[in-house]
Write a structure and sequence with these properties.
By secondary structure, this protein is of the alpha+beta class. The chain is 35% helix and 34% strand. The protein has a single domain (7-147), classed as Roll (Bifunctional nuclease domain).
Length: 158
């Protein structure tokens, strides 16, 4: 993990549907903080996350199961995933592994795919603090330009 940025450890707190767009949202909650970060994801990725949360085993490996098997067979050790940027309402992530020599292997990923893989590999999920700050700033800007009442994420999580 990069030591020059502040990382906040999170877990999947909820998988909900946006009532306005009917799009799935993965809500990440801070493990040792009050951090709440909603990330809109695609239907297939939401399904992959839901299947792993519910420990449903498909008859044949799904894409993220295949990736997990490939990681293991290639001798990579999962370290963590990091949601590391937010640009133009698009989140970015990286998956961090160590190879057989202990050298870092970093892969860029969509956060939804990284989360689905992290759940399967049982590795921690982190969000860079700057992403939380950017998300909060974007949400405030959206709330100011929108006449609808602000969403109350913690209430949705329960």
């Amino acid at each position: 993990m990069e030591s020059n940025s502040t990382l906040i450890e999170v877990k999947v707190g909820a998988l909900i549907m946006d009532p306005n767009t009917n799009s799935p949202i993965v809500v990440l909650k801070g493990i040792d903080s009050e951090t709440v970060l909603p990330i809109w994801v695609g239907a297939f990725e939401a399904n992959a996350i839901a299947l792993e949360i519910e420990k449903v085993v498909a008859q044949r490996p799904m894409t993220h199961d295949l990736l997990r098997n490939l990681v293991i067979e290639c001798g990579l050790s999962p370290k963590c995933i990091v949601i590391n940027d937010l640009l133009d309402n698009t989140f970015y992530a990286r998956i961090e592994f160590a190879d057989l020599n202990g050298d870092a292997v970093l892969l860029d990923s969509r956060p939804s795919d990284a989360i689905a893989l992290a759940l399967r590999l049982d590795c921690p999920i982190f969000v860079e603090k700057k992403v939380i700050d950017l998300s909060t700033a974007e949400q405030k800007q959206t709330d100011q330009s929108d006449d609808s009442p602000p969403d109350d994420w913690p209430e949705l999580i329960g």
